[in-house]
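Morning - magnesium ion inputs below, output right after.
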Amino acid sequence: MLVLDRVGKTYPNGVRALDGISLAVAPGEIFVTIGGSGCGKSTMLRTISGLDPPTQGRVVLDGTIITAPHEQIGIVFQEPRLLPWLHVADNVGFGLEGYPKLERRMRVAGALDRVGLTDKARVWPRELSGGQAQRVAIARALVPRPQVLLLDEPFSALDAFTRADLQDHLLDLWADLKPTLVMVTHDVEEAIVLADRIMVLRAHPGRVYEEIACDLPRPRDRQSAAFDFVKRRVLAALDRSLDRGAPTVEEGETRAAAGGGLWW
Amino acid sequence: MTAGVEQAGVPQAASKAGAARVLRPALGLLLPIALAVLWEIAVRMGFSNGRLVPPPSVIWNTFADLAATGELQQHAFATIWRVAWGFLFGVLAGTILGAIAGYSALTYRLLDPTLQGLRAVPSIAWVPLFILWFGIFEASKIILIAVGVFFPVYLGVMGAVLSVDRKIVEVGRVFRLSGLAMVRRILLPAVMPAYVIALRAGLGLGWMFVLAAEFLGASTGLGFLLIDGQQLGKPAQIVAAIVAFAILGKASDWLIVLVSSPFLRWEDRFARA
Ligand SMILES: Nc1ncnc2c1ncn2[C@@H]1O[C@H](COP(=O)(O)OP(=O)(O)OP(=O)(O)O)[C@@H](O)[C@H]1O
Ligand SMILES: [Mg+2]
């Protein structure tokens, strides 16, 4: 069980990015956080990962307080961040140093197979497409079999088709070992396709605004009425979370230009 | 059908690539050879007497004569030996201090202003002092070369360490690499391309400084050949020494490229056709 207990984060420059975030994510749950730009989503993931420990409260994984990177917590960033000097297979196996050679090779081969990149094992990262690189990054994070996998807008740089494809890939991978997934996105449909639970974060400072259960049966049909219903709920909650009093003229214009509601 | 076409195409493409690999460096020889041939023709036709700028045939003969007496080898070896030691010491010091200054902000503040101040001194200015301190023989020459090599290597290594992408370092942190593993698995490979460039710049300065050192009193070395040629009015010997410098400089630079290329194959370079 991953628990955030009144987690707050104030950056050295005085920005209060998170304030009193409390939540519990069950093992194997897919927990998706959504919210406007700059509301503290990345900050929250970084505190959980131990890269940037919280300044108030604590992050607890199965009784252990997380203050530094932990072997049971993996993370996938918005960019693949592959090491350009290692072949794809060595990137995937990066976290397995110290494992017996055979085991390492088997796990890497297995992971590459699962993300459909077996033929790219001996290729340099620069020779991959964006979607392939991100699949390698996911494989690299999953190969040490962490209990919790954090994903920070992992598909936001990809086109809609590739994104849908990778969402399926992610669900496949998740079905294998059932790690806890804590994911950040700003794509409402992506949130509903993946999540067991959706949290809307509100900015200045980052606070839990609303939690929405999402228990549609999988695989989820984006066209179904039930999907649409959840989508409306999430959009409405997001819209409310973004309201800081009456919208200014500028804000109203930006919103109208972006087709209502989705201006982040 | 397709397979047949491919099979026929592959060996042809391979031999073409092989020919290209031989021909492409040869392309670089085209200009100097053309100039040499033109000059040779000009002298033979009597457009110039070639006394001050000797034609290639005369230079070649000088080369052959010097090589026959063993003089050329002796002088070239003396110069190579000095550059090699100076380069070694300069690279060692530059790498260690550059890495420390890049890694630790405190060391940087402590060290960098002094080194930048020393860098501002024209290095030849050290010569009288080095001769007083280390004598007129090899030690002072090697130290002067080491000083020349030191600065580009120090600056290159420090800059490379400072500019290692924080995002890549975070990958190392996520996988909980210890300090040493972080250096070996993230920092070292990340600075490698810049390091090779720094080494090449350092070596270039090494060749420059060996000449300065040999000008200021030496009885061996290619620099001595130059001075000797000037004093005895033998322009062919001067040009022969210059050509020897060019060949040695290029060859040593190529050696660095050759040795480092297996470590840099991953680099995403701007490929030129
Ligand atoms: N390293 C940092 N130092 C200081 N302030 C920061 C730092 N990182 C983020 N912030 C600030 O903290 C707040 C939250 O940033 P964060 O990156 O968590 O937002 P986000 O929700 O991930 O936004 P986005 O959707 O645009 O990625 C912002 O106001 C940002 O300016
Ligand atoms: Mg973010």
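Note: Residues A 11, 13, 15, 17, 35, 37-43, 186 surround adenosine-5'-triphosphate (ligand 1) (CB under 6 Å).

O.
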